[in-house]
Amino acid sequence: MRKLEQKFPNELVVIGVHAAKFPNEKDKDNLYNAVKRFELGHPVINDVDMEVARAYDFRAWPTLWFIDPMGKLIGKHEGELPYEAFEDLLTRMVAEFDAKGILKRSPPPSIPELEPGTVLSFPGKVLADPGGRLFICDTNHNRILVTDLDGKVRQIIGDGKPGLDDGDISNATFDHPQGAALDGEILYVADTENHAIRQVDLAASRVQTIAGNGQQGNVREGRGPGRAMELNSPWDVVVDQGTLYISMAGTHQLWSMDLDSGDVGPFAGSGQESLTDGPLGSATLAQPSGITKGSSGGGGKLYFADSETSSIRSAGLDASGRVQTIVGLDLFIFGDVDGADHKVRLQHPIGITWHDGTLYVADTYNHKIKRVLPETRSSFTFVGNGEAGFRDGNGGQAQLSEPTGLSAADGRLYIADTNNHAVRVIDLDTGDVTTLEITGVY
Fold it and tell me: Residues 45, 166: one domain?
């Protein structure tokens, strides 16, 4: 949409109608943060009771309505619409209404850019290296900060401008990177809004694109060379034995990339948005946004946060592997309930990591960190009182605001506390929460 607003600055007026699915999304402060996080320059209606949506016969997210200069509804499209198709449609509409003399060219009122004025801006994921480094995806600053585990900056990857430029780390550009994985001195980055996977050689200080070409794709089957494949909103990555696994949120799948051959393609999920367990190819997922690998006790499985179904699920790594749901039930069943089996409720979890036989989950819309035990299919609150806020202290009283990423090292769990523009640190022994002071940014 941003590209269309830039191409048709005086012809196109966009009005967003926020018809929320999750309770957390209905809160005006959370919506305000979302508008800032997505850097929207157009007005957004908080349609809490879906009055506007119902008036326009809303049935699916997202839905696009087209209204002519006279206020008449002339079209509707349910689901994603590729930029090229949208651009062609608007070009024809502009020509038609121009010829009729009813197109009024004037820039629409816009919302000024809102900068939080903090070191970080809506950080998406963090990656703690047992060797003493912390990689912070500073998402809305379009860069990755490399610090020590106490927050002192060692390296900055990316110049901060949105783009898809390879080269030296100081000149390379990213576009809202979300997740990262480390293999020796090679860092892999899910460059989400570039629809690309980037490889950072930390020793040589070089960035290279290894999958995706900057165009949003709709591929749901088949494999091919990384640079020739069009990806769709890769959100997180994990590496295991020469294979990079990707949570491809846009196609509701997990993908895999052979790092030797460079081939990439779907690994799990049919591409349909729902929750169905079964063989890797026929199981259905819904916007998987976080991924991790179970270690020796993990039974050779990937674990992922299936965000739109508010569930935590696993995918076997062998040829006969299956997708299985650990906790969570359906697209429209969510909440905040600890316990086991079908009693558990989460609300749009986005982050997940495996540490010492336990899954730690960023239960994003509940503003909590939870422990999930695959063997017993149970989930329990570890940190957070369930209210969005910014407060250190004992785990049960501490407050977070939509945490989306987490990673453990040296007895500590590091949290990307997204709406607080901060990294929080949890002592795994005591559960106490502190805020990481990031120093040395240049």
Answer: no
